[in-house]
Design a protein that fits this description.
Elements (H helix, E strand, L loop, with lengths): L1 H60 L1 H15 L3 H28 L1 H8 L6 H7 L2 H17 L4 H25 L4 H30 L14 H37 L6 H10 L15 H19 L1 H22 L3 H28 L1 H9 L5 H7 L3 H16 L4 H22 L8 H24 L6 H30 L22 H28 L5 H5 L4 H10 L4
């Protein structure tokens, strides 16, 4: 039984990893040209509307899909299939009501949010356009939770890819054809892809549900809990999870609100003047010596951070979401049948695999921030914020998985407490750091690191106390950290050596938020191609270096590899080449 569950957990995670990789590739094909079409101002409108939508969506629906997944997996483990269907139907009703309410808040409050909250009237159309997406995604979440509770990640995977493709086609077309009118209208056209994508993904999941409806065996319906009891338990699980998720989503809203306001507290001196006009390319009419930074200049700085640095920063954590989504039903099912050892093994593997994946991503993206931005956007204005922000990737990934572990084990209030503490840390550090002229926009990634560091430490401490996994610091932290650091050194020197040979901009490890020099971008087309070549060579070399170093330090574990699809075969190959 133990081996079956472990295999099921990693197979589900593998399906979602593939789907999320596709989604991120499609998302890059959307976000990269979108940023080039909308520029910083249009991206500021887009980002504000999307962050607001994400915050309201999370507050409305974050807990219920997890609750559905947890309760359905428990019912399936006990072979009470009738109850699992009743749980699903109850969730659809709840999420439909919540989705309608969320859409109404966003639609009718669009003017207030744009003008009063964000001080950005240009964001109004984007907020209105994205408002119906809350209803579509809310109902869609009930279906995803139901399928995930059955450890069937395929419908979720297909719906995510459908959503991403629709966003790409509709959103890019809207931005491109409407940009001739204004950046405000173009941003609304771009964000319409989110709404259409949500609708199409929902229709696909409805199709999957009815197609597979007859395949699930039923027990006597009298064994199922009453609808009232199901409602109560759903809300009991969902409310604290929703509060916790809302707190973390609100950290993005904190950035959205505070960055512009705190930047506006900075008085423009000669250094800031040069940074705004030379590095950020703000028009001279929006910069005045001796006056505070204007909203137009703050929009450019915020758009650079949110539209470029944050977009890349979110890529690795979104892949780790695959493990988070799979771990909840897996641990819940194990605990439902009193298999504590299985829950402990799943906890150890999920944290270990997360660390092995996230650490090289964090260090690699930090070291290569400038060439990555050149290759993808031909705009390196966020190179310093991305370099710092990338270091938080490992923390965000650990927070994501550890939160899911605590939720699956029934301790749903602990992550809430920890996230509130982290949110307070972020708000306070944002307030003080961003207003410091020498740091300015750099305060945002620093406060993000502080926020997630606090949450990660608190979450892991709670897991050790509750589940009692065998966390060996050498195996869980030191080995992947040493390997990722060696990889970072190799990547840095290989990239700069290749860049020197073929003639493209080198990268640097320095961080400067008060620079009076123009960024190296935009570069000529040929130079950009050379940068992509140098980047590819360094990344490939870095991957090889990481695997070799992990093999030397014995950082891979056979039990983790065996849980992967075709894991035993992979383990045999790794043993032959001395990686295991």
């Amino acid at each position: 039984m133990k081996e079956i569950k472990k295999q099921s957990f990693m197979e589900g995670a593998a399906v979602l990893v593939v789907a999320h990789l596709l989604v991120k590739i499609i998302g890059a094909c959307f976000k990269i040209p979108l940023a080039n079409v909308l520029n910083e101002t249009g991206m500021a409108y887009f980002s504000r509307a999307y962050n607001l939508y994400a915050a309201i969506f999370v507050m409305a629906t974050a807990g219920l899909p997890v609750a559905v997944s947890k309760m359905v997996s428990e019912s399936i483990a006990k072979k009470n299939f009738a109850e699992s269907k009743r749980i699903f139907k109850s969730a659809v009703v709840l999420l439909s009501i919540i989705g309608i309410a969320g859409t109404a808040v966003l639609f009718f409050g669009a003017r207030f949010f744009a003008e009063k909250v964000f001080n950005s009237p240009g964001s109004y159309l984007s907020i209105v356009t994205i408002s119906p997406a809350i209803l579509f995604i809310s109902i869609l979440s009930a279906f995803r939770g139901y399928f995930q509770g059955h450890s069937n990640m395929i419908p979720t995977a297909f719906s995510e890819v459908t959503e991403a493709v629709s966003k790409l086609v509709v959103g890019l077309a809207g931005a491109y054809f409407l940009m001739s009118i204004s950046s405000e209208v173009a941003a609304a056209g771009a964000i319409s892809g989110v709404t259409i994508g949500g609708l199409l993904a929902l229709l696909l999941l409805v199709f999957f549900y009815f197609k597979n409806k007859q395949n699930t065996p039923l027990t006597d319906a009298t064994e199922a809990k009453s609808t009232k009891k199901i409602f109560i338990r759903l809300l009991t699980i969902a409310i604290p999870i929703t509060i916790g998720a809302a707190v973390m989503s609100l950290t993005n809203v904190i950035d959205t609100i505070m960055i512009s306001n705190r930047l506006s507290a900075i008085t423009v001196d000669e250094n800031i003047y040069n940074t705004l006009t030379e590095f950020f390319g703000v028009k001279l009419e929006y910069v005045r010596l001796g006056q505070e930074i204007t909203s137009e200049a703050a929009d450019v700085m915020y758009g650079s951070y949110s539209g470029y640095a944050m977009s890349l920063f979110n890529l690795p954590p979104s892949i780790v979401t695959s493990i988070s989504m799979s771990i909840v039903p897996a641990i819940s099912a194990a605990l439902a049948i009193k298999n504590k050892n299985q829950a402990k093994l799943l906890t150890e593997s999920s944290i270990r695999i997360t660390t092995m994946f996230a650490l090289p991503c964090a260090i690699g993206m930090s070291v290569l921030s400038s060439p990555i931005l050149i290759a993808l956007y031909n705009n390196a204005r966020s190179q310093y914020t991305l370099a710092l922000l990338s270091l938080s990737i490992i923390l965000v990934c650990i927070v994501s998985v550890s939160t899911s572990i605590l939720q699956a084990s029934g301790h749903v209030f602990i992550p809430v407490r920890n996230m509130i503490i982290g949110g307070v840390v972020k708000a306070v550090s944002n307030y003080f750091l961003i207003a410091i002229p020498q740091i300015n926009i750099g305060g945002a990634p620093i406060s993000t690191f502080m926020c997630y560091f606090v949450i990660a430490v608190l979450n892991i401490t709670s897991i050790i106390r509750i589940i009692k996994p065998e966390f060996n610091i050498k195996n869980f932290i030191l080995k992947p950290l040493i390997s990722a650091t060696c990889m970072g050194v190799v990547v840095y020197f290989v990239y700069n050596l290749t860049a020197t040979v073929i003639g493209c901009p080198a990268t640097s490890l320095s961080i400067d938020f008060l620079t009076d020099t123009s960024p190296v971008t935009p570069v000529a087309g040929l130079v950009r191609i050379k940068t992509i070549v140098a980047l590819g060579v360094s990344i490939l070399t870095g991957v090889i270096a990481y695997f070799i170093t992990m093999g030397i330090t014995r950082g891979f574990f056979e039990e983790d590899i065996n849980m992967l699809p075709k894991g035993k075969k992979i383990a045999r190959i790794m043993k032959k080449i001395k990686l295991l």
